[in-house]
Design a protein that fits this description.
With 298 residues, the chain is mainly alpha-helical. It has two domains: 198 residues, Up-down Bundle (Growth Hormone, Chain: A); 83 residues, no CATH class. The protein is 70% helix and 2% strand. It has a two-stranded antiparallel ribbon with strand order 1-2. Strand 1 and strand 2 form a beta hairpin. The longest helix has 31 residues. 27% of the residues are buried.
Length: 298
């Protein structure tokens, strides 16, 4: 009885420590595309406008909800569930940070910006899978404390990558490192996080087995539909960025763009779903006509 109780306590401690370490791994890259990168760019003599523009590389953190369902849908099974994506994103982050350390923002600003955007995308993807793993691995009674430990680890990592790194690069009072050396150290920390994720994290309980026979074909079709839906969403976002949804014509009217037609399509079910059957035909005619009219005319 005592042995069972001790084993449960050790397993609980293992889960909570894993959550704290993963919180640290999640928070480490954030400042490397934020205040640390801004300090690097300032010391390299870049213009204030360029530094301000490069803050946009953090946008993947805002839009990570777009590809989060895709990472959940196509997760690995067995003992690598959740950890497969985790190790992959952490190793990819290490590679991207090594590449960023080898790139001079003064000489190759465009390449530097693309690499910083890649780091932010991979970091946001790591956040997705770490949050999912924390939800799966912790028991219901542990999630409050687990969330606190994850935030603590996250904040400690931000202190390291956004504060202590500035001390390391201070030639007068610090170590006098170059920013390239700092980013290489951060990359090595991400390699260490990947090793810990692969070898020392608690395993997750297996998912229920997929149904055999016709159900397997349905699951494959569902996967293809998920990919097609994601591609359609990306196409709609791209069309919205290239063409405004509506635009004013010289005569004072407005014209519909392809993205505007997608908006109208999305409105059609709402127009058809209102209660009452007597005017259903009129609503169908009105909704179909909306497909040809700009949103500013609706």
């Amino acid at each position: 009885m005592v042995g069972v109780s001790l084993h449960r306590r050790l397993a609980r401690l293992h889960r909570l420590l894993a959550v704290a370490v993963l919180g640290f791994a999640s928070g480490l890259p954030l400042a490397l595309t934020g205040q640390a990168m801004q300090a690097w760019l300032t010391l390299d003599g870049l213009a204030i406008a360029d530094i301000g523009f490069l803050t946009l590389v953090g946008l993947p953190y805002t839009f990570k909800f777009i590809w989060a369902p895709l990472m959940d849908r196509f997760d690995l099974s067995g003992r690598w569930r959740r950890r497969g994506w985790m190790v992959l994103t952490q190793l990819a982050l290490a590679v991207a940070l090594f590449a960023l350390a080898a790139t001079s923002p003064r000489e190759s600003l465009r390449a530097f910006a693309l690499l910083a955007l890649t780091v932010a995308f991979l970091s946001a993807s790591q956040d997705i899978v770490v949050d999912a793993y924390r939800t799966d691995v912790l028991l219901a009674a542990e999630r409050g404390l687990g969330a606190s430990l994850a935030v603590m680890g996250y904040r400690m990592a931000m202190i390291v990558s956004g504060g202590i790194t500035l001390i390391w690069t201070d030639a007068a009072q610090g170590s006098g490192w170059s920013w390239s050396e700092v980013y290489r150290v951060m990359a090595l920390l991400m390699v260490a996080a990947a090793v810990l994720s692969a070898l020392l994290l608690p395993g997750l309980p297996p998912l229920p087995a997929a149904p055999a026979g016709p159900g397997a074909g349905t699951a494959r079709r569902s996967g293809r539909q998920d990919l097609l839906g994601f591609a359609a969403l990306m196409a709609a976002v791209a069309l919205g960025g290239i063409h405004p949804t509506d635009r004013q014509t010289p005569g004072g009217g407005c014209a519909r763009s392809p993205a505007g037609r997608l908006v109208a399509v999305a409105r059609t079910p709402r127009a058809l779903g209102r209660s009452g059957s007597a005017a259903r035909g009129d609503r169908l005619h009105s909704a179909a006509g909306d497909l040809g009219r700009p949103a500013c005319a609706l």
